[in-house]
Automatic annotation (TrEMBL):
Transmembrane region(s): none
Cited Gene3D superfamilies: Phosphate transport system protein phou homolog 2, domain 2 (1.20.58.220)
Family as reported in the entry's similarity comment: Belongs to the UPF0111 family.
InterPro entries: PhoU-like_sf, Put_Phosphate_transp_reg, UPF0111_domain
PANTHER family from the UniProt entry: UPF0111 PROTEIN YKAA
Top-level taxon: Bacteria
Pfam families: PhoU_div (PF01865)
Descriptive protein name: Phosphate transport regulator
Record-linked SUPFAM superfamilies: PhoU-like
């Protein structure tokens, strides 16, 4: 860690941690969706929507702080990118739940639980990593593991697509289910974007 003579605005750390904790909430709602009866999914979607709105509020708070702070803990561009990528994760998870409800999907495809388990693990790792931005220590394993998880998510996604196109589903169901698994894949990509941004910040601050 390089030595600094100027004070830094430290509230960003708490806001990033709060945003990541909210993503953990979203990942738990995704897990809950897996075991829920179709009649209970609308209520889960409402809670996910509330969590997504909380995520938006957290992101707007970071942007407001960024615009009003003369001194920031690291580059403004990286703060903006990190906040935006965290927000993207929540948006994708909320979209996936909403699509399941809107499309009235009765049976989720076999294998989608693996996608969601990867997202839940990435959410936990991200929440654990955010407090370490204060010192930039003990972060290497975080971004390595998230990148590994994203590769795993890619493999799961490809298997899900192969399953959807094996002729067991009619064309309309394939379209609906593909959109859901594609959005979950985008969430995995967004976790990787967060990890890559953290790595960039850590390298600059070292």
């Amino acid at each position: 860690m390089r030595f600094r003579l100027t004070p830094r605005e430290t509230s960003f750390y708490d806001m990033f941690a709060a945003s990541a904790d909210n993503i953990v909430t979203g990942s738990k709602l995704l897990m809950e969706l897996l075991g829920a009866e179709s009649s209970a999914r609308a209520e889960i979607a409402e809670r996910m929507r509330a969590a997504e709105h909380a995520g938006d509020d957290a992101t707007h708070a970071i942007f407001h702080q960024l615009n009003s702070s003369f001194i920031t803990p690291f580059d403004r561009e990286d703060i903006y990118k990190l906040a935006s990528s965290l927000d993207d994760i929540m948006d994708y998870m909320e979209e996936a739940v909403d699509l399941v409800v809107l499309y009235e999907i009765e049976q989720l495809p076999k294998g989608i639980e693996q996608q969601i388990e990867v997202l839940a693990r990435a959410a936990d790792l991200t929440a654990e990593a955010m407090p370490h931005l204060r010192t930039m220590e003990n972060l290497t394993e975080y971004w390595i593991e998230v990148n590994r998880l994203e590769n795993q998510a890619d493999q799961i996604h490809r298997k899900l697509l192969a399953y959807l196109f094996n002729g067991k589903y009619d064309a309309m169901d394939v379209m609906k289910l593909k959109q859901v698994v594609d959005v979950l894949e985008e969430a995995a990509d967004a976790f990787e974007h967060v990890a890559n941004t953290v790595e960039t910040i850590a390298v600059k601050e070292s």
